[in-house]
Write a sequence for this structure.
């Protein structure tokens, strides 16, 4: 019944789920309410919602927080909400692509506080969105994000598995990832072909694992991790020799100084190993 109601609502406004935008609207209110409960918001919070859609999450968010700032890229949905006036009064709707959004501006809108983000966004932009969160991590308190199951598992992966890779390491370098719930395709209109998961990415307070790391440069870490996993079937030595950071012999010396084997592959390395390797590379660069 709820699918038919959603379909009729869209049709009445001359709208339909956009394949180009990868839209799958969450249609079951109980699922939306559970996501909001798991986000553990307070009545004093200002919340950034990414992907307002038809407002399934927006209303329970508005009931749980002081203010909701909703970003939506679909102009048709913006028109729908403005025409129907169907969103609560404490919701500010902004026509904005989150990948182009200025997070510093969002912090200002949130009264200067670190962002609390709830996101149910198209799976086609999940990866660039996650990397934007990593780049802007110092401005974020936490993010509760709906993801394609495969993407969520990458964030939760452990060394030695095929899911373990660049997103795993880079997210772990600034946040703690927790699986909150699983969501079946039946919860959406239209139904996606894959299962989904909701994860919490906690950036503040800084996770214990991150606090225990020695100081490191995010730019260098990104270059090293991308280089190591860019050719993941190669040994660490051969993969990093292609980055242009240092000569092959210098890379070998840095790997050995980091107490790693030049023949190891990236998927076997922990975050701590990559940070130590970056430290050795930085030392060598300083000497040269």
């Amino acid at each position: 019944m709820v699918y038919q109601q959603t379909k009729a609502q869209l049709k009445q406004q001359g709208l339909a789920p956009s394949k180009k935008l990868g839209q799958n609207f969450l249609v079951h209110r109980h699922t939306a309410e559970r996501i909001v409960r798991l986000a553990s918001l307070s009545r004093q919070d200002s919340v950034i919602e990414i992907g307002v859609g038809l407002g399934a999450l927006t209303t329970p968010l508005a009931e749980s927080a002081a203010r909701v700032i909703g970003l939506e890229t679909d102009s048709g949905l913006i028109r729908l909400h403005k025409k129907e006036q169907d969103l609560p009064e404490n919701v500010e709707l902004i026509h904005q692509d989150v990948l182009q959004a200025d997070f510093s501006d969002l912090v200002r809108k949130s009264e200067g506080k670190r962002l609390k983000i709830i996101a149910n966004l198209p799976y086609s932009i999940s990866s660039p969105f996650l990397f934007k969160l990593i780049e802007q991590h110092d401005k974020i308190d936490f993010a509760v994000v709906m993801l394609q199951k495969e993407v969520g598992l990458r964030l939760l992966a452990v060394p030695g598995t095929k899911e373990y890779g660049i997103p795993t390491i880079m997210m772990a370098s600034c946040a703690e990832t927790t699986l909150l719930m699983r969501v079946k395709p039946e919860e959406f209109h239209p139904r996606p072909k894959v299962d989904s998961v909701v994860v919490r990415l906690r950036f503040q307070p800084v996770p214990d694992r991150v606090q225990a790391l020695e100081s490191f440069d995010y730019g260098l870490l990104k270059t090293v991790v991308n280089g190591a996993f860019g050719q993941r079937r190669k040994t660490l030595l051969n993969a990093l020799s292609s980055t242009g950071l240092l000569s092959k012999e210098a890379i070998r010396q840095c790997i050995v100084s980091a107490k790693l084997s030049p023949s190891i592959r990236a998927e076997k390395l922990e975050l701590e190993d990559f940070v130590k390797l970056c430290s050795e590379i930085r030392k060598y660069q300083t000497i040269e």
The chain has two domains: 2-209, 218-287. The chain has 13 helices and nine strands.
